[in-house]
Amino acid sequence: MKKLIGLKKVKAAVFISGTGSNLKNLIKFSKTKKSPITINLIVSNTNKAKGLKYAVSNGIEKKIINFKYKSTAEKKIFSIIEKNNIKFICLAGFMKILSGNFIKRFDGKIINIHPSLLPKYKGLNTHVKAIKNKDKFSGCTVHFVNKKLDSGKIIMQKKVKILKNESPLSLAKKILKQEHKLYPKAIMKVFN
Questions:
Q1: What is the pTM of this model?
Q2: 112-131 per-position pLDDT tens digit
């Protein structure tokens, strides 16, 4: 990643599918002096993603890409990314799996935040699984994206204690707070 750093910030895209709380947080972080990135593009697989409002309110270009045909969708994303000179991608609640080809073309420049302590509980329903298995801790992980789901090299993790009467919702809220702290720190780590 060091090669990407000059005096200028690296242009980044954030991919979302939902409420965009991590996106909102990353936009705020990107506007700080210490941030190595600027967010120049927001990509969503659905126009129902509430997080798209942050694109509008921050004057960031947004693209909604239909993923019905993955290879067509990814070709569109590639051309948008090239046109915008994007060099780094942050997945933030993006509910589509990118192809091996896409990941290879962006090798080592796509990161994701996941709401569990990977390698535990890849995929969906992480909070339900952690509580069902009577885990004492859960948390969140920022990792590089590779061809296998939620299996890339871990950049950083943050542990969260699971309380006795914890519900999946209360655990999700606690972990999300930690995600907002962890994601910017992990980006700093990638670029340092």
A1: 0.94
A2: 999 999 999 999 999 999 99
